[in-house]
Specification:
The protein is mainly alpha-helical. 94% of the residues lie in helices and 0% in strands. The longest helix has 62 residues.
């Protein structure tokens, strides 16, 4: 009788050990997924900040009280800078 109880306990211990291993693996996978999601979220937040800066720069150029020729020249210059910055961001993110 005691021998049967010990066998049941050993079986339960093995099952608990196997379940623990499964849960540890699941936890590891969930942590990896969370890290990926956090990295994606941070990248998207950076992209949003970049777009906000573009909008701010465009608003500054549009609201600046200068003659139209200077404004157009300034706008073109800033747009060129923005394009260069975008290319650098794309290059660095690869």
């Amino acid at each position: 009788m005691i021998h049967e109880e010990l066998q049941k306990l050993e079986k339960l211990a093995r099952q608990a050990s196997m379940r623990l291993l499964e849960l540890q693996e699941e936890n590891r996978q969930l942590k990896e997924n969370l890290a990926e999601v956090n990295a994606t979220l941070e990248k998207k937040a950076q992209e949003i900040d970049d777009f906000k800066n573009k909008i701010k720069i465009s608003n500054i150029v549009d609201n600046r009280p200068v003659n139209p020729e200077d404004s157009a020249e300034m706008s073109d210059l800033i747009n060129n800078y923005i394009q260069e910055i975008d290319q650098l961001i794309t290059y660095l993110s690869e």
